[in-house]
Design brief:
This is DUF7144 domain-containing protein. Keywords: Membrane, Transmembrane, Transmembrane helix. InterPro entries: DUF7144 (IPR055568). By secondary structure, the protein is mostly helical. The protein has one domain. It has 5 helices and no strands. α1 runs antiparallel to α2. The longest helix has 39 residues.
């Protein structure tokens, strides 16, 4: 005997998956943003924790990188709080800030490679989670 699921039951499952991925993205963005905040504080307070790369093309003062990470990390944390409410503006901003932070972390790979690559992966997972969920499944 074959069992079929009702359209209502399938719709509830899709909505649960969509909201689950949005919550996943919110948590990932929050954690990544906090890590970037810490990285910014480290760059501002203690330049010695970073590698010295004298011939790097995108060379900035490490204190400048610290302020950049601090500012973007703070924005990421605020936007992640908006994602918990499933606000459309937060989804759009989250994808944008995560994309910018991937670029920022790519540019700082020579200074702190493991941390940069880890954050690139976390921001990539955030973008993926927000992009695979269609807007109509959130409102179903």
């Amino acid at each position: 005997m074959a069992t079929t699921t009702s359209p209502h039951h399938r719709s509830a499952g899709v909505t649960a998956a969509a909201s689950g991925l949005t919550i996943f993205a919110a948590v990932m963005l929050f954690i990544s943003g906090v890590l970037d905040l810490f990285r910014g504080i480290m760059g501002i307070a203690e330049n010695e924790v970073f590698l010295n790369t004298p011939n790097y093309v995108f060379k900035f003062d490490l204190t400048s990188w610290g302020w950049i990470h601090l500012a973007f990390g703070a924005v990421a944390v605020v936007v992640s709080l908006g994602l918990f409410t499933a606000a459309t503006w937060a989804r759009v901003l989250a994808i944008g800030i995560a994309a910018l932070l991937i670029i920022v972390n790519f540019l700082t790979i020579p200074y702190y490679p493991v941390w940069s690559i880890t954050l690139i992966a976390l921001y990539g997972a955030t973008i993926w989670a927000l992009c695979v969920v269609r807007r109509d499944t959130l409102n179903a």
